[in-house]
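can u do me a favor
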């Protein structure tokens, strides 16, 4: 499962890169036949080469396969938080951030008034 997900993610990134490269090379299209063949050929060649490299790394290489299998085993050992815990923690973080922003705003106003009163800050 981990290897398949990794390969699908790599394939999506490779496809995105090929589409991006094709868009960049589209500006070089001319009337010459070799440009009409090379412009779409380069992104296809790059995608195929990177696809083969990704396939070899994910499925053929014993070292990376063992790493992904061990990673999947470790992920099964993790105790994941429940949805209720995540929502509660998120609310606490948002409230603390808002309170801190208000406190810093008040401190900023106090310093602004103090500096204006002693003549350092001209408002």
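np, heres the sequence
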């Amino acid at each position: 499962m981990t290897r398949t997900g990794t390969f699908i993610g790599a394939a999506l990134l490779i496809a995105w890169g090929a589409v991006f490269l094709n868009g960049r090379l589209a500006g070089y299209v001319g009337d010459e036949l070799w440009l009409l063949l090379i412009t779409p050929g380069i992104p296809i060649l790059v995608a195929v080469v990177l696809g083969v490299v990704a396939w070899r790394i994910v499925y053929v290489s014993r070292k990376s396969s063992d790493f992904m299998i061990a990673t999947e085993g470790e992920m099964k050992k993790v105790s994941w938080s429940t949805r209720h815990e995540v929502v509660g923690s998120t609310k606490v973080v948002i409230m603390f951030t808002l309170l801190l922003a208000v406190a810093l705003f008040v401190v900023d106003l106090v310093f602004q008034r103090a500096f204006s009163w002693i003549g350092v800050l001209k408002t």
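The radius of gyration is 28 Å. hope that helps!!
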